Structures are given as C-alpha cells and as structure tokens.
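queue> pop job 88
queue> type: inverse folding (structure -> sequence)
queue> payload:
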C-alpha cells in the first residue's frame, strides 16, 4: 500500500526549521509558464539571459527531475527589505560614493532556506522516499511552481507575491516520489489596476503586465556580459548589484508581515573607491557569492565606475586617483567605463593625460574608442 503524506505535517517541520510558508503541488507540466517563457524568448525579451530560458520544457516540467517524481514541496523564506526609502541613498557629490546592494544578497537567506528544505527532505527520506532539493536552479522555474502550489500570484512586476509575506522571499523546493495530499489552490491576482511598479521603473522594463524586458532591467544588466548600456547608465544611479525598485514600490509589501527570523545582514552599501582600489583576489573573496559574468572582477569594476560617474564628488582627490588608475587598467572594459565616469564628472583632463596607444591597447572590440567617440574626443595623436 502506498503511503500518502499530509502537507500539514511537512509544513510544521518546515516552519520549525525556519521556513515561512510551505505548500505542495504535483509534477505535471506547467504549460502556461512554458508558453510565457517561450513567447518572451521569441520576442528577445530575455536579452541573452539563460536560466529557465535555456530549456523552457525542462524548467516547467518537475517530473523530468528524476523518474518517478510525484510531488513538489515548495517553500518560502522571507528576507529583510531595504531599510532606506527608495532613492534616499544617492547623494550627488557625496564625499565617499557608496553603491547599493539588493536586499536578497545582503543576508544568507538561501543558506537558511536550504536548511529548512533539508529538514523536510530528511523526514521524507526516513519514510523511504526519494528526494531532491532544487533552489536557485535553472532546472525548475521556481516562481511558476510556487504559483502552482498556491503560495501566491505572479505580479505585474513578475515577482511571486504572497498575500502575507509579500515578494521579499527566496524560493526552494523538495521534489519527491512520495504522493502528498494537499488542498492548496492557486491564488487569484491581487494587483488589480495598480501600476506603481511599471510606472516608476527607472527604465520602463515593466510596461506589460507580468512581462519583464530584460534588455532594460537594471538588475539583469548589472549581471550581463559586455559594456553596461550607455542608455541606462544615468538611470542606474548608485545601484552596484541588483535593483529593488519594483518591490519597494509594491503596495502588497507595505502590509507584509515583519521579518522575525531573517539572517544577519551584510552591509547594504559598498565603498566604491575602496572597491576600485582592491585587488582581484580580495574582490572575489568578498563578492564571489554574487553572480559575476565569467567570474571576472572587471565586471564589478565596470558597475562601480558607473556608480562613481553618477555620485562621485568632483572635488575629492581620491576620485581623480582611482579614475587615473582605472584609465590605466589592463582591461579594456574597465578603461572604457573609466572614460565615461571621468567625462561625466567633468574630468576630461584625466582622459587627455592618457597616451593614445596605452588607452586603446588590447581592445579588439573597440569599446574604448567607441566611448571616446560618444564624447566627441579626438584620436589624433594623444587623446585630447
């Protein structure tokens, strides 16, 4: 006789282990989510993003995780939202420029989420079930499966919105071959006619309900390869990693439950001059848990230079020193963004001091030359 578990037992185990909510769904393909992913990919809205876009069929079919999978236990762990109101942190010409970091990476909530999932998986294993923990994994579209399990709805901002926890959550699952009884139902859309997230998105990345144009999303552009698009550099403001605007603006989060058990948070701001002064090894030791393209610290410096150009103090000699250092970087990516930051801060003399050969060296894609052209700087002889 096949034993059928009750969700409530697993939910209590999860709550005691630090999770904030637990639900269950079956392993049937989530066709609505698959269609949405494929449509957005066909329209180019994924902007080269892989994740679940890499294999939509696999990401929306939990049964493919292993043969015999029957149930998906989906769990949420809430993290602390930003303490400062939106845009309060950006102070033009502040003495020491600081870069803001998205709330979800300020604490180790994924570690706490995994511990809660492990507690559920251990219980199921003791009962003879096969289990597999899936979290932050492109094999499973976590927001889609959480919606299917009745943990919330997908909002206009594309985030999972839990009726009580809001969107400040990380999502994980335990896939098992044991049937689990549940009375969960999908949650109706609670956004209604609200357009706060789409109207106030700094780049217009949320013009369509529930559709993100990653080509314009600051959070994705900070993680994408290549130069940071010139069209969105000023809009980036002081964001160094991630963007919380569409969550901060969401009225569902205004009434969300207080965070009672969030993990201790790391600093919400990073000293930009110190970052640009730090050696590669130190940067990767401190920020290596972030998603950094190709694991190259030059991308951290790229982002930091855009923040510096937006918020650096023109009268601070430390700014001149660090810009000169970056203009002499071995990385063309760093030099090109240092050109932008220097010229945005009206420090043309720092660029003009550079020798043409040195500034344009080792730049097969011509990104430094292109940046200079954007600012109308001559390339005859020395730059200037």
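queue> result:
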């Amino acid at each position: 006789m096949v034993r059928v578990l009750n969700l409530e037992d697993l939910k209590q185990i999860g709550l005691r282990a630090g999770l904030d909510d637990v639900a269950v769904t079956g392993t049937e393909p989530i066709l609505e989510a698959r269609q949405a992913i494929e449509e957005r990919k066909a329209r180019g809205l994924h902007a080269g993003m892989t994740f679940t876009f890499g294999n939509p069929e696999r990401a929306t079919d939990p049964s493919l995780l292993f043969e015999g999978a029957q149930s998906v236990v989906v769990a949420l762990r809430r993290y602390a939202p930003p303490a400062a109101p939106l845009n309060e942190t950006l102070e033009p010409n502040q003495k020491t420029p600081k870069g803001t970091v998205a709330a979800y990476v300020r604490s180790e909530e994924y570690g706490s989420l995994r511990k809660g999932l492990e507690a559920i998986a251990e219980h199921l294993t003791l009962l003879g079930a096969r289990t597999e923990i899936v979290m932050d994994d492109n094999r499973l579209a976590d927001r889609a499966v959480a919606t299917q399990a009745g943990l919330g709805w997908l909002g206009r901002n594309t985030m999972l919105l839990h009726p009580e926890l809001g969107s400040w959550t990380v999502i994980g699952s335990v896939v098992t071959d044991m049937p689990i009884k549940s009375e969960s139902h999908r949650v109706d859309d609670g956004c209604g006619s609200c357009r706060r997230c789409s109207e106030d998105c700094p780049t217009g990345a949320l013009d369509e309900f529930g559709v993100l144009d990653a080509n314009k999303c600051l959070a994705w552009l900070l993680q994408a390869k290549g130069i940071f698009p010139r069209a969105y550099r000023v809009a980036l403001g002081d964001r160094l990693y991630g963007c919380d605007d569409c969550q901060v603006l969401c009225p569902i989060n205004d009434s969300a439950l207080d965070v009672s058990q969030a993990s201790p948070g790391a600093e919400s701001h990073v000293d930009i001059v110190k970052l640009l002064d730090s050696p590669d090894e130190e940067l990767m030791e401190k920020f290596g848990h972030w998603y950094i393209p190709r694991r190259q610290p030059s991308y951290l410096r790229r982002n930091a230079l855009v923040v510096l150009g937006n918020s650096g103090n023109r009268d601070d000699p430390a700014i001149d020193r660090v810009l000169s250092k970056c203009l002499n970087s071995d990385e063309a990516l760093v030099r090109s963004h240092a050109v932008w930051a220097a010229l945005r801060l009206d420090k043309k003399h720092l660029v003009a001091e550079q020798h043409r050969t040195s500034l344009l060296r080792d730049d097969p894609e011509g990104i430094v030359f292109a940046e200079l052209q954007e600012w109308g700087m001559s390339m005859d002889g020395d730059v200037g």
